[in-house]
Automatic annotation (TrEMBL):
One of its GO terms (cellular component) is cytoplasm. InterPro entries: AAA+_ATPase, ATPase_AAA_core, Clp_ATPase_C, ClpA/ClpB_AAA_lid, ClpA_ClpB, P-loop_NTPase. Residues 148-206 form a coiled coil. This is AAA+ ATPase domain-containing protein. The keyword Repeat applies. Keywords: ATP-binding, Coiled coil, Nucleotide-binding, Repeat. Belongs to the ClpA/ClpB family.
Amino acid sequence: MLKPALARGQLRCVGATTIDEYRKYVERDAALARRFQPVPVGEPSISATLAILRGLRERYELHHGVRIADAALVAAAENTARYVSDRFLPDKAIDVVDEAAARLRVQHESTPEPVERARRAITLKRIERTAIAKDLAAGGDGTGSETRARLEQHLRDLDEDLAHLEEVLAKLTARWERERTRLTRIQLKQTELDRARRELEQSQRDGRLERAGELLYSVIPRLTAEIREATAAAAEAGARGSLVGDYVTARDINEVIARSTGIPVADLERGERQRLLELADRLGERVRGQGPAVRRVADAVCASRAGLAPPDRPVATFLFLGPTGVGKTALAQALADELFGHSSASPSVGDEDDEGDGALPSAGPSAEASLANDRLIRIDMSEFSEPHSISRLIGSPPGYIGHDEGGMLTERVRRAPYSVVLLDEIEKAAPEARHVLLPLLDAGRLTDGRGRTVDFRNTVVVMTSNIGAGAVVGPGVTGGAAGPGAETPEERRHREQATREVALRQLRSRFSPEFINRIDGVVVFRALTPVELDAILQDRVEALNQRLARRWPGGVSQPAPGGDAPAAGAAGGGLVPIAGDGDASSASHHHHHHHRSEGDIRLVIAPDARERIVQAAAAVNQGAYGARPLLRMVDRLLNRPLARLVLSGAVRHGTVDIALVEGTDDWVRWTQTPPGGAGPERELCRVRIRSDEDDSFDDEEDTDVVLGDQQQYHMPDSSEWHTGGQGDGGDGEGGSRPAGRPPTASGF
């Protein structure tokens, strides 16, 4: 139908389509394609996009009834170009500005938060006043004179609070109405100005020059001046603080981008230069004992972000070599946190996984922590050991089952283009699977089974392998401790150089040259010394103390006396987290913003006990397992006993000291002194120091944690500090002590 009209010149047509659709529908029809002149339109630059946004600003201001700051347009052009990779400018920048303006307009129609808070406070005070008034009106129900006087005084205090809150609410409401009136007046003026401009265009086309002159030289200048004066007055009032925002700011733009990409707003606003300069130090705080590896990773990332690396490749590609438990996966997780989002209270670790080391759960995972986890795309390459498994990685080709589902790697990167891709145990993948990754490493792109090209240019690709692990673990791996026969720094340097050469030689024998040649850096992780294991132990203890402070701020509430069942509605046998006044919002506040107080439970391990724990962990298979034995010992020595002590009520607040039992080197004792020294030291339990790999003990016959099962705990005050039960100083009659167990104090 179109071709005859186009051939006769009866129809003038301008079409718009994508390149793929042009090839599919137009180019295959030569007669139709001949009637059109193709005009390729590329993506505009950031500066051109900014000019487009400035041209559209007035239209969007009029449509939404808000003002848009120029800084917001700059943020929209720059940040969408950088962080939104699956769409093109200027479309994605215009959409972000449109959404931010719509959100601000919705806020205009809603009650401001200060007004809403004042209304809620008044409602709560009135409910409380009504309840107290009912109690006083009932009278004679056992209410003593002192209690009645106290309730009457509280009622008078509530009346004063209500009067004050109602006065505050009245002022806030009046201020809100003034601001809404001011904004409405500006919006009406803007609408009138837009109507005048449209009338001017129509008058010029119709030849009504007198009306056009009146609009051009009288009406439009007057309206423009009135809008300018009203806007200046609103800006002056806003500088003193306003309840209703009238400007779309750069932060509003960043919040919209953060919701669509998952990148926290703080990272969008924080200076990129300062964050990169501090990257090595921040990674070193998270991963202990791998200074050279951390510096090499940080240097490569900084070079890429500074624009010195090829722009058509991933940000960086690394191959981490080394034994298990030395920090390969931990460094990848830390890199994801620092570059693409921060998890809350992430402990410093030297292991590879943060695998459930908490005996007491936190109040719940934060949104930022989940975002950080989303930014680490972890794929176990041992699942792709067969050539046919490649389809699971990039998606099945057309005609095969699962074609529409996409691949494990390509789909996740397409949804989160700013992330760290961790390919774990790459040596276990089939050679065909590694060959599929070559375009990713070389050109920063990968085509999935559906023919879509996935952009990897904003990812950091980390591959891990245990190749050369046998070379890293050898004589002297436990060096670094003080004392006779300890390995000197020079000896360690020579040993690490020799193990690196062996590891690289084994790497070249396993991987093809074209694969190795596309990797930015091969990083060999070194074995951990006792000094570094001790730092990891201290980090884990501090992380446990932070979890205790968040979970039990101010201490643990008293369990039901005498071991009785808790009252109806009580949770966890009478043990409930104490958080402010007990409501959900207060608990959430403490979870995120708790500051340690004297009442918090805090563990302190003596240096001699730490040294013995580290020695026991380092001795497991001559250090071949890295920090993992230490983490399992932390679970055995700290998490499990602490869980029993807290849930039983033996520990509720204050500092718990952990030290070696005198005359032994395989037992630690947990003791606690009442606050202010008001009472004798109390022993809580004793735990044997041994690793899970030590099979010389039988758990059924030799329980490590020595606790009195018959003890009845209660909250001590200044006049008493004991554990109850069978009395102080005896072994008690609650159970026999296994042969060979050290004597215990306080009935344990």
